[in-house]
Amino acid sequence: MEYDVLIVGAGPAGLSAACRLKQKNAELEVCIVEKGAEVGAHLLSGAVFEPRALDELFPDWKDNGAPLNVPVTRDDVYFFTSESKATKMPNAFVPAPMHNEGNYVISLGQLGRWLGEQAEALGVEIYPGFAAQEPIVEDGVVKGIVTGEMGVGKDGTPKDSHVPGMELRAKYTLFGEGCRGHIGKRLIREFELDKGVDPQHYGIGLKEIWEIDPEKHEPGLVVHGAGWPLNLSGSGGSFLYHLEDNQVAVGLIVDLNYENPYLSPFKEFQRFKHHPKIAQYLEGGKRVSYGSRAIAKGGLNSLPKMTMPGAVLIGCDAGTLNFAKIKGNHTAMKSGMLAAEAAADALASGGEGGDELTAYTEAFKNSWVYEELYASRNFGASLHKFGTFKGGALNYIEQNWFKGKAPWNMHDTTPDYAATKPADQCTEIEYPKPDGKLSFDILSSVHLSNTGHEEDQPCHLKLTDSSIPIEHNLPKYAEPAQRYCPAGVYEVVEDDAGKPRFQINFANCVHCKTCDIKDPSQNITWVPPEGGGGPKYSAM
Amino acid sequence: MSNKILIVADYLNGELNQSTARAVTCAQQMSPTAIDVLVLCDDGANIAAQAAKLDGVTKVLQADNAANAHPMAATLTPQIVAAAQNGEYSHVLGPNTTYGKDLMPRVAAKLGVAMITDIMAVHSAHEFDRPIYAGNAVITVKAPEDQTLVASVRCASYPAASEGGNAEIETLSLDAELPSHTRFVNLEQAKSDRPDLQTAPKVISGGRGVGSEENFKIIYDFADKIGAGVGASRAAVDAGFVPNDMQVGQTGKIISPELYMCFGISGAIQHLAGIKDAGTIVAINKDPEAPIFEVADIGLVGDLFTIIPELDAAVS
Amino acid sequence: MKVLVSVKRAIDYNVRIQIKPDGSGVVENGVKHSMNPFDEIAVEQAMKWKESGDAEEVVAVTIGPEAAKEQLRSALAFGCDRAIHVKTDEPVQPLTAARVFEAIAKKEEPKVFLMGKQAIDDDSNQTGQMTSALLEWPQATFASKIELDGDTAKVTREIDAGLETLDIDLPGVITADLRLNEPRYLKLPDIMKAKKKPIEDTSLDDLGVERAAMLENVKTTAPPQRESGEMVDSVDALVSKLKEKGLL
Question: Could you tell me where the DSSP H helices lie in A234-328?
């Protein structure tokens, strides 16, 4: 099967690219493969959405029912000074990128579904339930992908139901797998796309949706916070957004450059919800959803070269998220649209594909995405270097005084996994027990991600060296996989004789990619399990 | 309002099934003017006599027919329809055994009426609760009062009616044309040494706390002692102690035994999803804070390796 | 032989259902829906017959809103030859569904009408039985094995007492249980081909179906929570409690 353009991932980048391709030329054969069981199943984001790219893609989105139903009415920014206290930042001190007038509180899953409908109406073929497993690279040119096999047993032997992978070829392939896409990771390495840029930096985002007491609900209220509990052992930020239907989205982003291997992002999130400023909304409410996903926050300084012969990285697969705004959906969409335009133009002038779409890189450099990313390029690094408070202050100065054109450039050259300190140099963190009303245990949380996998299949979390978790990570780092995974996949269990054993409960995996990022030994490689598996987020 | 209720008796190997007695209990909550039990057998005297002893039964109708030697929905339905119409019953109930599940919808369709499956609570003679989404939600439904009401009773929700009754047994001659398009071939009764996990009335389960495949012997032995089926938690399966088909839980089997005893199982929500409809849950775990104790009817904190031998001795 | 198989669009079995706070039902918007798993098993059985040459034509049918076309496309991707969409946005309960299927079966005249034993949303387990009653056909429910033999079939059923085998005349309605087979994975080329297979739209009115009187849905609530019971402090105490309850 050969297409004009093949897109991997039905996220905001991939879907926007698909729509833009068809808008430029309705005759183009465009196909999207998506590993989730349906469009939206694997989409998770805060999210406060800037409609800039959507305005360009579908100017009549409002009339066509795009799910932007909750305009932001108020922005509150807090510094949580302790588990019970917080200081509200006066509006004047909130850096420009954090002001949200004109933006909307949305569910990325819902937006994705709507974009999927627009794409299909334009004639795009979308195939959910099929994972792109490997790229097809011939003579240094990316020619497409191979979908994953189905029906292979736990021991690796094909079952009666075995279906081999299928080759999908295209003149151009756009990779929009999201943060730490596994094919993107491989292509970056093979084509040396990250030569000369800072290593990518990541955060893990954990999110829940709650149905709250209508009396407490204020649609359009956007609350952002920093400080407790993360100022104790790491950095990151929190959010609570009021959606429609008496629902709120609440979450925590923990920067993955944390040093203490005893840090559990999940438990930080659970205890965070007890802060009075957050609990005031959640009390008496009901948790309806849980999920988690890593985010790529390195910004411009970590942005790799995005083109290679025959293919392009778009969205978070490259790293287009603007961390100063903590928004990546609009930039992902625009990057997809720019890639689509470059591909459509190349094909229009009789191109056969397979070349490097340098026009994309040019267009990207001249776009508002680049402008935004340039303005916020130092934000992440200054937080890493100076901590939340001073780094945040520095960012304020840069954004509001220099309007983003500060004369300095900050670089953070330590990869996140390498920032982990040995366990004996750190103190164990004592986390409170979940109370079952505001905070919960990990398995009840995973339960609400609707995640599931065919159990009789090979484990999709590949250890390069199976002895490392117990023989190296455990003594040196207290095997942090037990704590950084937001789904309880990794456990160190003692067998009958008291010997520790590394157990991987892969069926719980929510496809967040944190293990691939944070394993101090970089021993875990995430590859897609059988297509259709993983979470089935409803509107995350 | 006259609520004249007809219950279709379920039986096997010449014995009245306890499900019938539970259906009687349910019927008693519908303000009945009469509860009659219909026995459709080739020779139903023995079964009718058992039914007549149930408290709350007004009359037992013994409708013998050679075709009933092996009860099948196709041949029973015309007889039930005839009995229901002749007797002017307002309600026709069956138990939610596979017998009742197979049969009652056919009766409802022949009577041209809707059917309520798995009544788990009675609000009135026409308003009931029933489980949907595998019991993860409960829907309250109201049936039209101007029609015969056909339903199956969720037996797990009702205790068996006690024995103390002395109802009249009436032989019923039903004029119903029976189809010949369905014929009984055979019944292979489950005769394994150990009851099947999915349907066993007693189940013993082991979790990670059991420690190893070898240690599971203690679970199997105790189960065999009391005639129970054997299950396991996902953790035990993942650790390789037992095969996957023994898994009880959200991604394994969802069971509803009368007695569920679990050893060394912490009680994660995924496991609880598999046993939420069990009658009595007994939990034994070393950890007094294990979540299983929040849903167990009877809990005992302790080491399963000490407790199981004591249990074994106590039931000997 | 022509086989008719009915499929239902239902909330995916992996999704934790959320009950609407106003008790009017379960949240369905934006929630993953799939083909009822028991219906997948029924479709798989029909495909096996196609592959063995026993079935020349397999027709899929569904009753539901426009979105249910997704399930018909799945059925076609499995290998069904064509599909019928009885389009409706109104709620359809089993007796009305059975009347629809009766009308379709009378039109299509299949030798076997297959469907899952129950839908995992409503869990009524009625439609197959009702359909066969209206058609005055034999019914063989909870099938775990089917052996075709010309104008009859031997169907083994999973019942409480064990495995029962019935010999039925065809045409008949057979409802599938879990162990009948394991549905195949859909292949991408088949999904692509399925787009071109025909789906015929029709409606309850077009079929002349009289809607049956419905059960009124008063409210939907969460199931009663299991409360914690009591702790005992010895095996003897445990055993005596269990003996009291008649469980040991």
Answer: 265-272, 276-282
Residue A344's CB is within 10 A of a number of other CB atoms, namely: 21
Best of A447, A451, A489, A505 to mutate (most B CBs within 10 Å, chain B): A447
The CATH number of the structural domain formed by A2-63+109-197+304-375 is 3.50.50.60
Rounded to a whole number, what is the distance in Å from the CA of B304 to chain C's nearest CA? Answer: 11
pLDDT at residue C248 above 90? no
ipTM confidence score: 0.96
**pLDDT at A516 exceeding the cut of 90:** yes
Q: Which chains touch B (3 or more CB pairs under 8 A)?
A: A, C
3-state secondary structure chain B: CCCEEEEECCEECCEECHHHHHHHHHHHCCCCCEEEEEECCCCCHHHHHHHHCECCCCEEEECCCHHHHCCCHHHHHHHHHHHHHHCCCCEEEEECCHHHHHHHHHHHHHHCCCEEEEECEEEECCEEEEEEHHHCEEEEEECCCCCCEEEEECHHHCCCCCECCCCEEEECCCCCCCCCCEEEEEEEECCCCCCCCCCCCEEEEECHHHCCCHHHHHHHHHHHHHCCEEEECHHHHHCCCCCHHHEECCCCECCCCCEEEEECCCCCHHHHHHHCCCCEEEEEECCCCCHHHHCCCEEEECCHHHHHHHHHHHHC
Please give the residue range of the domain that contains residue B303. Answer: 202-315
Chain A contact for C122, CB < 8 A? no
Which CATH code for domain C2-244?
A: 3.40.50.620
Q: How far is residue A151's CA from residue A144's CA, in Å, rounded to a whole number?
A: 23
Query: Are residue B100 and residue B156 in the same domain, yes or no?
Result: yes
B259 interaction partners in chain C (CB closer than 8 Å): 242, 247-248
How distant is the Cα of A496 from the closest Cα of chain B, in angstroms?
Answer: 5
Sequence-distant (6+) residues with CB within 8 A of A532 are A35, A36, A37, A128, A129, A130
Give pTM, 2 decimals: 0.94
Domain spans of chain A, in order of start: 2-63+109-197+304-375, 379-410, 441-526
Q: Would you state the pLDDT for residue B137? A: 96
pLDDT of residue A393: 67
Question: Which residue among C93, C167, C248 sits closest to B114, beta carbon to beta carbon?
Answer: C93
The percentage of chain C sitting over the pLDDT mark of 90, rounded to a whole number, equals: 95
Decide if A503 touches B, using CB distance below 8 A: yes
Distance from CA of B315 to the nearest CA of C (A): 8
Is residue B81 located within the same domain as residue B154? yes
Domain ranges of chain C: 2-244
Residue A383's pLDDT band (cuts 50, 70, 90): low
Residues B164 and B253 in one domain: no
Q: How do residues A222-269 score in pLDDT, each as one tens digit?
A: 999 988 998 766 788 999 999 999 999 999 999 999 999 999 999 999
Tell me which chains share at least 3 CB pairs under 8 Å with chain A: B, C
Give the lowest-confidence range in A495-499, B108-112, B298-302, C71-75.
A495-499
Mean pLDDT of B179-197: 88
| Domain containing residue B296: CATH number | 3.40.50.1220
Helix axes B217-226, B304-315, angle to 10 degrees: 20
Average pLDDT over residues A57-62: 98
In a domain, B126, yes or no: yes
| Residues of chain C contacting residue B142, judged by C-beta atoms under 8 Å apart | 215-216, 218
The Cβ-side half-sphere exposure at A57, using a 13 Å CA radius, reads 34
A441-526 maps to CATH 3.40.190.290: no
Residue A382 has pLDDT above 90, yes or no: no
Any idea what the CATH number is for the domain that residue B87 is in? 3.40.50.620
Domain tally for chain B?
Answer: 2
The rounded distance, in Å, linking the Cα atoms of C217 and C214 is 9
